[in-house]
Amino acid sequence: MKTVILGTGEVCRLLAPAFLSLGHEVVVGTRDPEATLAGNHPYRLLAARHPELRLVSFADAVAAADRSGLVVNAISGPACLEALAPLADGLAGHVVMDVSSPYDWSRPDVVLDPVNTDSLGEAIQRALLGAFVVKTFNTLAAQVMPRPDAVGPDHTVFLSGDDEAAKARVAELLRALGWRDVLDLGGIVTARATEMMLRMWIDTSRALGTHLFGFKIVR
Amino acid sequence: MKTVILGTGEVCRLLAPAFLSLGHEVVVGTRDPEATLAGNHPYRLLAARHPELRLVSFADAVAAADRSGLVVNAISGPACLEALAPLADGLAGHVVMDVSSPYDWSRPDVVLDPVNTDSLGEAIQRALLGAFVVKTFNTLAAQVMPRPDAVGPDHTVFLSGDDEAAKARVAELLRALGWRDVLDLGGIVTARATEMMLRMWIDTSRALGTHLFGFKIVR
To answer: Domain named Pyrroline-5-carboxylate reductase catalytic N-terminal: which ranges (chains A, B) (predicted)?
Structure first.
């Protein structure tokens, strides 16, 4: 399976090795590959450990994507709409796994945007009309995404998306990573639910003093 | 212990018998006691089963409250600020356990108000300046509040409030009802977190086809 990851932040650096260990061919897209490989960017450590990773521009990464594979939107929330818009034609027909949060993590106050009557997942689906956007992983710290057992034996990961086949493909990947409780909430509109949980994630992490926790739907 | 419940809806009808079985003296407040006992109001069934329950006006219920006990705000979300405001003087010095949601359940579309930069819990604390507001139970169906084991062996109930002693009193009550995982999120500002989870509660209940579930923080 060919997996393209857009973005070189923490989510990319934790998901890329996990995908490689599942046998995926992984291509990483970034704004400026030379800048990412220069200076002290933490991506350099990943590149040194995994020379099989290819780092290219966003446009080249999308051009390399396979419609039977997966494209992961791991660009940070506030910036991702602007970065994704020019890629809309290339992403048509692709499954886009979106893990973004509608929050600027550099802000001290927690204000989500969009929220309540819209979500970043829906905005991305509108920007990428021909793509099949599946929202997932956004209720979890990046460390926990590829390693559910890092926090406990059984917690829940959520799916939101309008295309059943796309959700099935993402669910299969999640199960390969060890996720046992994959809950399909419904259409991409339900991204509002998981994105609004961000406030609970932040307050819980402050109360517990750790990012290593997960939400389980007990039923 | 003396417990005053404001509101005669589903939350009152499920919590009142639970408090009675813990040995509390329970007084219920409503806008118009005569109207509540006339016609087909479902409160009549509760009153018939539990003649020891006293039903009085909101003002008389607050006058009957005990500062060593608890006042429960079980008035439905959008209406409760208007109903509570005239009771502010009487509620000074009391612990007010607030279970409200910032949502009009008669609306087909899910729009929370307030949300994101404010919460109903904070608005109630501002309206009841001398009271000690503790937000809890608002991530759960009314049926689950007094019976955590209705959905599984172990899930989480959250507390938000600015007064530690008030939260300790509410936590003691929750433990008496069988709650084992009581998570103190912090000040009343963290009511934003649990109130914004309402969207997740609604989408999960739609996905599962039941109200009988709970959120567990797995850590």
So the answer is: 4-101
Which residue is associated with the tokens 């008030």?
A: B166
Q: What is the pLDDT of residues B70-126, one digit of tens each?
A: 999 999 988 899 999 999 999 999 999 999 999 988 888 899 999 999 999 999 999
Q: Tell whether A215 is covered by a domain.
A: no
User: How far, CA to CA in Å, does A120 sit from each of A130, A188, A207, A214?
Assistant: 17, 10, 26, 21
Tell me how far CA of residue A21 lies from CA of A25, A146, A176, B15, in angstroms.
10, 11, 11, 51
Helices A120-127 and A77-84, axial angle in degrees (round to 10): 10
Examine residue A20 and state whether it is found in any structural domain, yes or no.
yes
Across the interface, whether the CB atoms of B203 and A185 are under 8 A apart is answered: yes
Chain B interface includes A214 (CB < 8 A): yes
Q: How many domains is chain A partitioned into structurally?
A: 1
Spell out the residues 6+ positions from residue A185 whose beta carbon is closer than 8 angstroms to its own: A158, A159, A160, A193, A194, B203, B204, B206, B207
What residues make up the domain containing B87? 2-208
* A27 is a domain residue: yes
State the nearest Cα–Cα gap between A187 and chain B, in angstroms.
10
| Cβ–Cβ contact A38 with B under 8 A | no
- Closest Cβ opposite residue A152 in set B183, B190, B219: B219
**Nearest chain B alpha carbon to A117:** B111
Question: What's the rounded Cα separation, in Å, for the pair A69 and A94?
Answer: 8
Per-residue pLDDT at A107 exceeds 90: no
- The pLDDT tens digits for A160-196 are 999 999 999 999 999 999 999 999 999 999 999 999 9
Q: What angle do CA B114, A109, A196 make, to 5 degrees?
A: 50
**Within-domain flag for A145:** yes
Which residues from B are below 8 Å from A186, CB to CB?
203, 206-207
Q: Is the Cβ pair A185, B197 closer than 8 Å?
A: no
pLDDT interval class at A136 (50, 70, 90):
very high
Question: What per-residue confidence (pLDDT) applies to B82?
Answer: 96
Residue B43: pLDDT band (50, 70, 90) is very high
CATH no. for residue B133? 3.40.50.720
Share of residues in chain A with pLDDT > 90 (%)? 93
Task: Give me the pLDDT at residue A78, please.
Answer: 82
CA-atom Rg of chain A in angstroms: 16
Q: What is the ipTM of this complex?
A: 0.96
- Chain B, 144 to 173: residues with Cβ < 8 Å from chain A are 151-152, 154-155
